[in-house]
Amino acid sequence: MEAGHSRVVGSWHIPKGSNVTISFNHTIVAAKDKQESATFFTTLFGLPDAVPAGHFLAVALDNGVSLDFAEPPIEFQPQHYAFLVGEDDFDRIYGLIVEWGLDHWADPRQTLPGTINTNDGGRGVYFLDPSGHYLEIITRPYGSGR
């Protein structure tokens, strides 16, 4: 791109030097039982109880983000949700995963059961929520160990 030109994104023109601020606010998490899934999540992650928000049960995360649990009247495909957590939180969450007897894996393909990974100099583990979604906790962002 030449100096002084704007970027073209679809049919939008963003003038060079513009500051575009985008923040993630919420996502809907399909659940077989929204109360069970929200409670599993808040208990495991040590978060405040979910609060009703219309047809949803909203779980508040940092930075104003929420996971809004819903019970759609359709079959849904499992999704993947990854969470960056501190070392102490990892210890507590992983301790509950083991205590509760949850299946867990060091890898997303579930070929390394019952253990964690040490990718990027941190720790990570994959496990399932009550609705079959693939959850992951990591202590270092991907690529940070390079």
Automatic annotation (TrEMBL):
Pfam families: Glyoxalase (PF00903). InterPro entries: Glyas_Bleomycin-R_OHBP_Dase, Glyas_Fos-R_dOase_dom, VOC_core. Residues 23-140 form the VOC domain. This is VOC domain-containing protein. It comes from Rhodococcus koreensis.
